[in-house]
Design goal:
The complex is a heterodimer of chains A (about 375) and B (about 325).
Chain A (H helix, E strand, L loop, with lengths): L1 H8 L43 H26 L13 H10 L5 E3 L5 H6 L4 H8 L24 H15 L5 E6 L6 H13 L3 E7 L2 E2 L2 E2 L12 H4 L3 E6 L3 H16 L5 E6 L18 H8 L3 H12 L4 H23 L7 H5 L7 H16 L7
Parallel strand pairs in A: 1-2, 2-3, 3-7, 6-7
Antiparallel strand pairs in A: 4-5
Chain B lengths: L1 E3 L1 H15 L3 E5 L15 H5 L4 E3 L4 H14 L2 E5 L10 H8 L2 H4 L9 E6 L14 H5 L5 E3 L4 H13 L4 E6 L8 E3 L12 E4 L4 E5 L3 H14 L4 E5 L2 E3 L3 H11 L2 E8 L4 H13 L8 E5 L10 H4 L3 H12 L2
Helix pairs in contact in B: 1-7, 3-4, 8-12, 9-10
């Protein structure tokens, strides 16, 4: 007795309990995928979702703009007027619902297929075309828009989103970061390392996986033996959730919830949006080599645009005339962006060198001067 | 001024900058409670707290990748990777992103980021603990590569690297972490990046070295001096961008050049220095440019590492060949 009371009142520091087992029973199972709209545009639940009519219409407008842009960009590439392009058709609900849910102060990290998400956040379509047309100017995100630049090596952007969220948390800034990646990205180490850091440091990060069923040719089942991608969050000690990625309202609400949780200090969330890439992986890909027509048809019937139009019609917010007008308007807007893209100012070779460092070191200056001299000798441009 | 060894000077630079810059954060494995495996971050957690000194999970990719986000957000992260041999997992983050974010965003984002890593042989350690990887990073536009060789330089160059608006790979010659002490100026002490230092003046030949090899070059110069050969020792200090002016001026003066580095010879920074001399000082040369370097093999384990690392004898032997060419 004497001995134990002495230990309790003595100056010795209390010995910490071994933290070998952080049981988190509430995380150990996933619910079914979140759904609000059925493919026929009816709601799953009786009550209407709590989203303002104005937001519904704006988001639908973005989806249509995205589809029109995507089809136009594909054509431009086929005509030799654009470089390699990664189409997004079929993933409009996943991109619009998530990007629209964020606030302006939040940061968004794209991979290379999130053109529509970037546009929702305020980047111009002509700038996005410029990027795919081979101009570095297309990577210039205007001040005030907290979008990061596209990241092509798979899943590498995930850690950048964790880093920004971590930095903001350390500074006491209440911002949230959202990072996009695909089903293939979940096989990369960067995904797991990013998820682990986010879990340990409880960063306000939303991991937004657009599971579009294929990583180029490889089907989702061959990426992992796991039943879902969302469940991978469990291993890192935070919540994972599946959502019908072709259901705009479900994506929007799920992202809002994850965002609010993160902003209140609740840490990260992994959202797996179940969707489908209707087109090729990129303009260099032929999807008929690896998937069947029936499968494509199955998903075409679940087109996120159709579902949203039917819903708006059922609510009485939409009709044929408004639908036609919206598509015409979108086509005119995108046509204008194509013109702006094709009329972009001529580039100067200095742009190769200019943004390598804050100040150009002597070797870059020397190389630029030599290139200029060569061009001058050959009449101002590269010889035939 | 305090008498410090090189690793203490690194610690002093970090402490001094952390006092002045509340955006500076340190992250890495064992950098907090443990003070770093070489004690470079000793005492910093206690002084600045767990929001400034961040012990991370064991993932070089995680450390470097998240520090890119931190830097883009406006913090000044100084990353420690325990040994340069563990940088390869993070190579993708460094080369594919850290080097390119300014370029890719046309200056909208830039990364005031320092990646510190002890490098080089001579400390009798296991595989992957002794390599010299500076050439990998010198090959990448958008990165700067800095290697100090003295305590005072370590402090001045590290502070300059921290204040640089672009990512800097800061390689520390761990063989001489505790080899000698030197007066190190207190408080803010900054040496500009991209400037070499004449470690010893001489007239007959130029020895170019960096990191622990600067000491080898100086020892060789002393031996040569006894034989009546006056060697100039140029410590490059910044590997990328190289200080062309100082290198060329030295060769114009001496007419002979010998480059000493631990890294393998093939594709090493020595080849770049030789090409630079060829471009800008060919007519001053009285002999071919020579290199004494590591072999184009794997860095051997501790029993044979002394045969791999250039020593003063090999440098003197090559210098004599230059003098009798």
């Amino acid at each position: 007795m004497v001995k134990s009371s002495k230990t309790r009142t003595g100056s010795r520091k209390p010995v910490a309990k071994p933290a070998g087992n952080n049981r988190q029973d509430h995380l150990w199972s996933l619910g079914p995928p979140v759904e609000i709209l059925r493919p026929d545009g009816r709601t799953v639940a009786k009550e209407e979702p709590d989203i303002a009519a104005d937001d519904l219409l704006k988001m639908y407008r973005w989806m249509v703009n995205g589809r029109v842009f995507d089809e136009r960009a594909l054509k431009l590439q086929r005509q030799g007027r654009l470089g390699t392009y990664a189409p997004l058709s079929g993933q409009e609900a996943a991109q619009v619902g998530s990007a629209y849910a964020l606030e302006q102060r939040d940061w968004l990290f794209p991979s290379f297929r999130e053109h529509l998400a970037l546009a929702v956040r305020g980047q111009s379509w002509s700038g996005i075309l410029l990027y795919h047309g081979g101009s570095e100017e297309g990577g210039r995100v205007p001040e005030g828009i907290n979008n990061f630049t596209p990241s092509i090596p798979i899943a590498t952007q995930i850690l950048h989103a964790v880093g920004v969220a971590w930095a903001a948390k350390l500074r006491g800034d209440p911002i949230v970061t959202l990072v996009y990646f695909g089903d293939g990205g979940t096989s990369e180490g960067d995904f797991h390392e990013g998820m682990n850091f986010a879990g340990v440091f409880q960063t306000p990060t939303i991991f937004f996986c657009q599971n579009n069923q294929y990583a180029i040719s490889l089907p989702r089942a061959r990426q992992t033996r796991a039943e879902t991608l969302a469940q991978k969050a469990i291993a890192y000690g935070f919540e994972g959730v599946q959502v019908d990625g072709n259901d705009l309202l479900a994506v929007y609400q799920t992202t809002r919830q994850a965002m609010e949780k993160a902003r209140q200090g609740g840490g990260p969330t992994l959202i797996e949006a179940l969707t489908y890439r209707l087109g090729p992986h990129t303009t260099a890909d032929d999807p008929t080599r690896y998937r069947q027509d029936e499968e494509l048809q199955h998903w075409q019937e679940r087109d996120p645009l159709i579902r949203m139009r039917l819903y708006l019609e059922r609510r009485g917010d939409w009709d044929e005339a408004r639908e036609t007008a919206l598509w015409e308007e979108a086509k005119a807007d995108i046509a204008q962006s194509v013109t702006a893209y094709e009329q972009a100012p001529a580039r100067d070779v200095e742009e190769i060198f200019k943004y390598t460092y804050a100040e150009m070191p002597w070797n870059l200056q020397e190389q630029l001067a030599d290139l200029r001299a060569y061009l001058q000798e050959s009449g101002g441009q590269l010889p035939e | 001024m305090a008498q410090l060894n090189l690793v203490q000077a690194v610690n002093d630079a970090l402490r001094s900058e952390m006092q002045l810059d509340d955006r500076l954060v340190i992250l890495g494995e064992d950098v907090g409670v443990d003070g770093g495996v070489f004690r470079a971050t000793e005492g910093l957690l206690k002084q600045f707290g767990p929001r400034r000194v961040l012990d991370t999970p064991l993932s070089e990719v995680g450390i470097v990748g998240s520090s890119i986000g931190m830097a883009a957000y406006g913090l000044h992260p100084v990353v420690e990777v325990q040994f340069s041999g563990f940088l390869p997992p993070a190579f993708d983050q460094i080369v594919s992103h850290a080097a390119r974010i300014r370029w890719r965003s046309r200056g909208r984002y830039h990364l005031p980021l320092v990646v510190r890593a002890p490098y080089g042989g001579g400390i009798r350690s296991p595989e992957h603990h002794s390599e010299s990887p500076e050439a990998f990073y010198a090959h990448v536009g958008g990165l700067k590569v800095v290697i100090p060789s003295t305590p005072a330089d370590a402090k001045g160059l590290l502070i300059a690297a921290i204040r640089d608006p672009d990512p800097v790979i800061f390689l520390e010659p761990k063989h001489i972490y505790r080899a000698f002490r030197q007066e190190v100026p207190e408080g803010e002490y900054i040496l500009p990046l991209g400037r070499a230092q004449i470690a010893q003046e001489g007239d007959d030949l130029s020895l170019f070295a960096w990191g622990a090899m600067t000491q080898i070059a100086l020892a060789a110069a002393e031996e040569l001096d006894q034989a009546g050969i006056s060697a100039e020792v140029v410590d490059l200090r910044t590997i990328s961008p190289l200080d062309a002016e100082t290198i060329v001026a030295s060769v114009r003066k001496t007419g002979r050049a010998l480059i000493v580095h631990e890294a393998p010879r093939q594709g090493g920074v020595g080849a770049e220095v030789a090409a630079l001399i060829n471009d800008k000082a060919l007519m001053s040369l009285q002999a071919p440019v020579l290199r004494v370097a590591g072999f184009d093999t794997i860095m051997p384990l501790l029993q044979l590492e002394d045969y791999y690392l250039p020593d003063a004898g090999r440098v003197v032997r090559a210098a004599r060949r230059l003098m009798t060419y």
